[in-house]
Structure formats: structure tokens, C-alpha cells
Design goal:
Length: 326
């Protein structure tokens, strides 16, 4: 990997290699969120505002991913990313599209990066990899990834099964690797970003905060359910399998009741699989669907344009840093 010099973000005043590495103004990453950013609007808005906007390929049809990539590129010269869950049955097609379209940044998740990184480096792209344990971080660094997104238990969607918090996990990974670390999970404002840098991270990834934007392409009922939730109103559904952090609702209560009753594992897994994120995100079924959101939902009180969120995050980070220095 090419040596990248540590610089200081001119506006935020925090040391980070990410702006030079990725070509972005601010070391802020919008998480790839299925359905919410499986379209061009959110990624484009964040990229225009100086962050790393991310298209979530996971639920997309290949032709829709092509159209979204081209729409973002037509709307800005700024870098952007595509998140590809490597376990996805369409992952190979997504990677081929990203290569053909010369996507500047790939964010790989839920699978190993070895065998993919060299291909994208040859095209001049950067590869960020999502990890949830120090040992996975070390392997990803050895595979040649450019930076790591380290996701703690507070995160919405699929947090680490071991439920280690962002505070502990990020610090452990920073101590284990030399490449830049992007902290994720429980971060919704500038104070959280500043805290991530105090741990040794060089950037922050935010999901739930960007979910609560005008451009996020989920049902309004989904946004309202997240907006109404407090910091204690999420739960992990599917502990012991592939846990999902979501807003508590009738479905999560049904799963918890089944666990207390000692439901057979096969039936329990079938129950978990019987509902989906799509039910909530597209159809607006916030009672029975998987309303994925992080614990930081309790820190978000409004739904704003993504550009306004970016401007606020930068200002809040500057204020938090000045408070600490004072």
C-alpha cells in the first residue's frame, strides 16, 4: 500500500490520513445502508458536502446499481463509495460492475477481502473493509486493504456478535494495525466524532444520523419510528445467529417471547427469517418489519437534508475539539 501522510483537516482540525487517501474534504463516511442508500440521492448529497457518500449495493438489481453509480458520477466530481456485502449471492456481479464503472472506493463487508483488493488497486480504487474484531482487522490489513471501518455493538443493522462496544473495539483495533481506522457505531454528532479521534481513529462512519435525512430512500413511517426512539429503544434480534440491531416493535417482542419459551432453534431461525428490513423500509410496516437503527437514534431529533447534517457535524466537531483544548 502506498504511504499516505498524516494531515490535519483544515476545518475540523483533526489528524487524519483519510482526506489525502480518499480525496474527500472531511473524514466522515456515510454508512452503506440497505434501501436507505440503495439509490443515488443520499450518496450524492454527502459526496457533494465533502464526506464519503456510499451506495449500498446489497438489495439492488445489477442494472439499478449501474444507474445509481452513473447518477452520482453525473452529479459530482467528488469521490464516493459502493458497499458490497461479500456474502451476497450477487456480490461477484456487484464487484464486476464497480470495476467496470471505475468506482473510486469499495467498502467490503461480511466476507474476506483477499482476492479482491489487488483487482481494484490495479484500477486505482481504494478498498475499505468493515471489521468487528481485532483479529479480522489484522487479516484485512495483511490482505492489503487501505483502511478499516470498525463497527461496535451500538451500530444498527449487523453489529458484532460478541457485542463489544465501539469504545473498546476501536481502541483495540487501533493498537493492532497501522492503517487508518474509521470508527462506527453509536456516533451521531460532532462530540462522537471527536471521541472517535481520541481513541486513535482517523474518521467516523455514521449510519442512523444519515438515515434521518431527506435523501434517505426509506418509508416515512420508518423514519418516524426511528425519530421517536430513545437510546434504550433498540434491541438485538437473533443473538446466537446473525444478530440485527433494530427498534423494539411487535416482531422483536415475538422473537424475545419465543426465546423465553425455549422455541426449537430451527423454528426460531424460521421466525427471524420471516420478517425483513424491506417490510419496514419499503412497505412501512414498522410493527412487523425489521426497523434497523443504532442506539444513536436517541441522539437524533430531526430529519434534515444531508448537506445540512454534514455542515452541522463539522461545526459540532470543531466545537467539541475547542472545548477539550480549552
Amino acid at each position: 500500500m502506498q504511504e499516505v501522510t498524516m494531515g490535519e483537516n483544515a476545518e475540523m482540525g483533526l489528524p487524519s490520513r483519510l482526506p489525502a487517501l480518499l480525496g474527500i474534504r472531511h473524514p466522515i463516511v456515510q454508512a452503506g445502508m440497505s434501501w436507505a442508500s440503495s439509490s443515488p440521492a443520499l450518496a450524492l448529497a454527502v459526496a457533494r458536502a465533502g464526506g464519503l457518500g456510499t451506495i449500498a449495493a446489497g438489495p439492488m438489481r445489477p442494472e439499478d446499481l449501474v444507474a445509481a453509480i452513473r447518477a452520482v458520477r453525473a452529479g459530482t466530481d467528488a469521490p464516493f463509495a459502493v458497499n458490497v456485502p461479500l456474502y451476497n449471492k450477487r456480490a461477484a456481479a456487484f464487484l464486476d460492475i464497480a470495476a467496470a464503472e471505475r468506482v473510486p472506493v469499495l467498502i467490503g463487508s461480511q466476507g474476506g477481502p483477499r482476492g479482491h483488493v489487488e483487482r481494484f488497486h490495479a484500477l486505482g480504487a481504494k478498498w475499505l473493509h468493515v471489521v468487528a474484531a481485532p483479529e479480522h482487522a489484522v487479516k484485512a490489513e495483511a490482505a492489503g486493504v487501505d483502511a478499516l471501518v470498525v463497527v461496535g455493538a451500538e451500530a444498527g443493522g449487523h453489529p458484532p456478535p460478541n457485542e463489544v462496544s465501539t469504545l473498546v473495539l476501536v481502541r483495540a483495533v487501533v493498537r493492532a494495525v497501522t492503517i487508518p481506522v474509521i470508527a462506527a457505531g453509536g456516533i451521531a454528532d460532532g462530540a462522537g466524532i471527536c471521541a472517535a479521534f481520541a481513541l486513535g481513529a482517523e474518521g467516523a462512519q455514521l449510519g442512523t444520523r444519515f438515515l434521518m435525512t431527506k435523501e434517505a430512500s426509506v418509508h416515512e413511517a420508518y423514519k418516524q419510528a426511528v425519530l421517536a426512539a430513545g437510546v434504550g429503544d433498540t434491541t438485538l434480534v437473533g443473538r446466537g445467529a446473525l444478530p440485527i440491531r433494530q427498534i423494539r416493535n411487535a416482531f422483536s417482542a415475538e422473537v424475545e417471547a419465543a426465546e423465553r419459551a425455549g422455541m426449537a432453534r430451527e423454528d426460531w431461525l424460521a421466525l427471524i427469517a420471516s420478517r425483513s428490513l424491506k417490510d419496514a423500509a419499503l412497505s412501512g410496516d414498522v410493527a412487523q418489519g425489521k426497523v434497523e437503527a443504532g442506539q444513536s437514534c436517541g441522539l437524533v431529533q430531526d430529519i434534515l437534508p444531508a448537506a445540512e447534517v454534514m455542515a452541522r457535524l463539522v461545526a459540532e466537531t470543531v466545537a467539541a475539539r475547542r472545548r477539550l483544548v480549552a
